[in-house]
Amino acid sequence: MAEKFLQFVIDNLTSFGWYNYLFAFLILILCGFGLPVPEDITLVAGGVVSGLKATDPHIMLVVCFAGVLIGDSTMYILGKTFGYKIQRFKPIRKILPPSRFAKVQNEFTKHGIWVLFFARFMPGLRSPIFLAAGMSRRIPFSQFIVMDGLAAIISVPVWVYLGYYFADSLPDLLRYVQDGQNIVHVIIGLIILLVLFFWVKSAVKKKMLGKNK
């Protein structure tokens, strides 16, 4: 599926110029609604189009970033606006059945708003998690957009520039997609380590100050 989608972009979209920005933007918004097209591959495809000189890679990056956040925010806002009533809508019930909603709520109880951050790196679970976050009406939109934005700052540039730099070699690009996933995971791991380091440092400092008193 990934290869066919990328080939479709190369064969059909590189001659349209500005249309490529609109295409990437709309597809990413639809991905937020659970469209069965991998969001990561859509971002890579946006980079491919730029690598083939049809668009500017930096503008494409901004457009993709906006598309990702708007798509995610739309799911959150729908959940928050309609609450549990939204599950009466059949397409939504397929995305977030009661059993999955209960599991997502349990994750929020255990890990708090960090679930929103890691949701971006869990294909297939993003839409249900963002929808459930809104339905719960316990997470302010400001917290939602900050956590989702932080995750997008990590993932979106990796995928867009990966497509840009390897646009001329589709077979190599498909191999590097897996490497891109590993890069994202390494970045996340480093962030977690840094957070733990500063947390432990702060805790030790407070303990030492308490002893001195």
Give a written overview of the molecule.
The protein has 213 residues and is mainly α. The protein has one domain. The chain is 80% helix and 0% strand. Helix 1 runs parallel beside helix 3, helix 6 crosses helix 8 and helix 9 (141-165) packs across helix 10. It starts with a helix and ends with a helix.
**Main β sheet profile:** none
Structural class: mainly alpha
Query: What is the global morphology?
Result: globular
User: What is the number of domains?
Assistant: 1
How large a portion of the residues is in β-strands, by DSSP E?
A: under 5%
The average pLDDT is 78
List low-confidence stretches: none
Please count the beta strands (DSSP E, at least 2 residues each).
Answer: 0
Number of helices: 10
Distance between the termini: 64 Å
Radius of gyration: 19 Å
Order of helices and strands: HHHHHHHHHH
> Helix proportion of residues, in percent?
over 70%
Q: Which short descriptors sum up this protein?
A:
single chain, 213 residues, mainly alpha, 10 helices, globular
Lay out the secondary structure.
Elements (H helix, E strand, L loop, with lengths): L1 H11 L5 H15 L6 H13 L5 H26 L7 H6 L2 H14 L2 H6 L6 H11 L4 H25 L4 H43 L1
